[in-house]
Amino acid sequence: MVRSWTGRACTAAIVWHQYDTHFKHARFNRNVRSIWAAVETLVDYKFLFSRQRTAEELEALHERVAKRWYDVCCKNAGLYIKLGQQIATMNHILPPPYLKYFSELHDQAPSVSYEVVEGIFRKEFNGKKPQEVFLEFDKEPIASASIAQVHRALLSDGTPVAVKIQKPEIAVQLPWDLACFHLLVFCFEKIFDLPMYWTVEPVCQAVRQEVDFHIEARNSKLARDFFEEDKRFYIPSVLWEYTSRRVLTMEWIDGIKISKLSTLRENGFDVAAVAHLMVEAFSRQIFLSGFVHADPHPGNMLVRRRPNSRETQLVILDHGSYLSESEKFRKQYCELWKAMVLLDTATVDSICKSWGIKDSNFFASLQLLKPYNPEKHSVHLNATTMEDIVKLQVEAYERVKRLLGDSQQVPRELILLGRNLNIVRSNNKGMGSSVNRINMMAHFAAEGISVDLENPLDAEL
């Protein structure tokens, strides 16, 4: 009897595995893989971490955990690639092995076949194939990311365009991935006694918006409107008649990725000037527009010469993930940055208290991404050093536990804003840390205090 039931259970497990893999894009298997990795990580950091006595032993532990989660992200693909890319930007907090593995994920997003692309396109455009809508449509993608891939096409008049096609598994996997994310963060909060779970729903909401290309098209238009008067920045235009929830068609732009430093130099671009444009663009968004790109990684920015000019122009792509700041928060954040740089501890403390934050000095360090010590009567505006990074890593765990007084009061804008700050800092570092990021942000913060805005999304309505 036992053998019979064991056989049935094994058969059922095999059938379920095959069904999940071939018909449900492995949504169950992917989350089992994630939960198992989380259990192993729990054992490593909760029970083994304190036993590591030497730097070599700690390095080996970090190496093991980083490799484990890198493998999970590669095998699960989809939204896990995006998660891993975010981890790669946090090298001011995480140990070096995490950067070593996760920095490779920018080139690890697999593409889907043309047959799959055609199937999605026909569902979105009343049964029409890409070749029936466009004069030409390249079957091979020119880029593949975690959620979508991009194909080059020609309109009927020969105008080149970029057609972004959402991968079919995303819609199926999304609810399961987000449910698993909820569960993992909840468990890690309880086990490690860290205030984490309050961040989950804003992150999930941002991901849900990112898979609706109508929202990305709207974000692109709003960003384009903001930068329209400053020709140093450019947002490609959306072709609305060729855009749907899972297909986005935009103006084609030729340019060089900001991470291709040698290619930039070979083409006569000043890398320091490009880095300056990059930091300025997002400083302006944070403090002057209140509508902020939340995923400004190197693949989302191109450099080119302005048409009919030799002036350098920064082209900003991929507007799926955006933060819309309330006017109250934007003004407070401007005041916070001004106060941090001027060592106005009373104002820093007051703003932090109103946000439910107890450790204002550590919170300021997280915003500046370098240690903040007002008692020393100075703020170092120079580039973040390895000493700064080590100090943040040493202090992070215990101070994060004490950081929040009331998570319900914390502005949810800080979550995606923190993501932007991390990536911009990482980009600047990758380009040689040539820009005084803190000084520039403080400049635009001071300017933003006197600016009164309406929410751009309200204006759209």
TrEMBL record:
Residue ranges of domain ABC1 atypical kinase-like in the record: 105-348
Superkingdom of this protein's organism: Eukaryota
Pfam families to which the protein is assigned, alphabetical: ABC1 (PF03109)
Organism whose genome encodes this protein: Guillardia theta (strain CCMP2712)
Family assignment from sequence similarity: Belongs to the protein kinase superfamily. ADCK protein kinase family.
Residue stretches in coiled coil: none
Cross-referenced InterPro entries: ABC1_dom (IPR004147), ADCK1_dom (IPR045307), Kinase-like_dom_sf (IPR011009), Mito_struct-func_regulator (IPR051130)
Name used for this protein in its record: ABC1 atypical kinase-like domain-containing protein
CDD domains, per the entry: ADCK1-like
